[in-house]
Amino acid sequence: MDPAVNTPPLTARRARGAVAVLFFTNGALFANVIPRYPELKAELGLSNAALGSAVAAYGLGALAVGMVAGVLVSRWGSARVAPVTTVAIAANLVVLGTAPSWIVLATALFVAGSLDAIADVASNSHGMRVERRYRRSILNSLHGLWSIGAVVGGSMGAAAAGLGMALALHLSIAAALFAALAVGASRFLLPGRDDTERATSFTGRPGRTPQRGRLGIAGSVLALGTIAAMAQVMEDTGGVWGVVYLREDLGAAAAVSGLGFVALQTCQTLGRLLGDRVVTRYGDLAVARAGTALAGGAMAAALAVPATASTVLALGAVGLGIGTLIPASMRTADNLPGLPPGFGLTLAGSVNRIAMLAAPPLIGVVADTYSLRAGLLVIPLAAALTLLLAPALPASPVRQSGVR
């Protein structure tokens, strides 16, 4: 019988459910805050620039403190670090909701970004431990649950705002709920060291990763981090600027322009939930190439012949095409030889975060200098760069003998 279809042991199935809860809670926690930014701005009397600089502290925290995530995971293990940082994120949520000044808000956002970066590495590291026991891809569906959590959290925030619920009360309830979920799930995580399941890589060749001889570890980290960054650039550009393009350049109604964001997020979530089966059969490289070509080609066509319907469809294709790219880059980075558990994820994630700090202002400058349509060309350009770097991903199907 094909090992990929064997029923995993009970410990692995319980651990999958537990780490799925951590992904869901991670997506839901901070998403509760985003719909309530206008209230934070009004309550503190902030200008747009002041709010923007406070929000930027989140990214700075993720970049500055995220580098220690690998050290923490290597020292204490992802089964401890992931739930502890999730509870800390929840506690910091209350600080955000009660911030009395700009400096407290910015500090809380810096801490939120720092904790999220650590939780991200720890949760993904543990998810890949479970994946190795399953001997087939499950990481895409875990990221899909993160996306669902983000939708749930954002909906909670929007509902609380609509009901006029006090910000501190709303975020305290959300923090308590999701912290309790994380603590409850933690008892089912896998015990032991994070390198316990590393008997073989997902290519079935012990101690090897694709392109190792040509790229080397540093080159692999740079390539994998850039692949993740380009996926994030395509997602953020399509989700944020695509809506503005539909509204301002194509004259779509407000409700219709919002469909661009909905199409991208819905299709990305669908691609992640269904991506494991495809990746297990065809491998990360083939799926990444096909998805990237779909995303870049669809957006290029929509920009070449501008129309509302085709742009919405193209944004959906972008979401579907990029769905597996970040999980694939993380999986491959975590399997890099010669690095302690969590370090490959941390280094590749840092490349991603550096790129993400540079991309938004660059797109804004291009849009102001030329046009928003020109700015959206970053999506097919990012897709082209991803196709160029795709050989850093493994070509073999995601399947291994693994440790049971």
Report what the structure shows.
There is one protein chain. This protein is mainly α and 404 residues long. The protein has 2 domains: 3-186, Growth Hormone, Chain: A (Up-down Bundle); 212-392, MFS general substrate transporter like domains (Growth Hormone, Chain: A, Up-down Bundle), CATH 1.20.1250. Helix content is 77%, strand content 0%. It has helices at 10-31, 37-44, 48-66, 69-76, 78-97, 102-134, 139-163, 167-186, 212-249, 254-282, 284-304, 308-322, 325-334, 343-369, 372-375, 378-389.
Which SSEs are present, and which pair or pack?
Blueprint: H1 10-31, H2 37-44, H3 48-66, H4 69-76, H5 78-97, H6 102-134, H7 139-163, H8 167-186, H9 212-249, H10 254-282, H11 284-304, H12 308-322, H13 325-334, H14 343-369, H15 372-375, H16 378-389
Describe the structure concisely for a colleague.
By secondary structure, this protein is mainly alpha-helical.
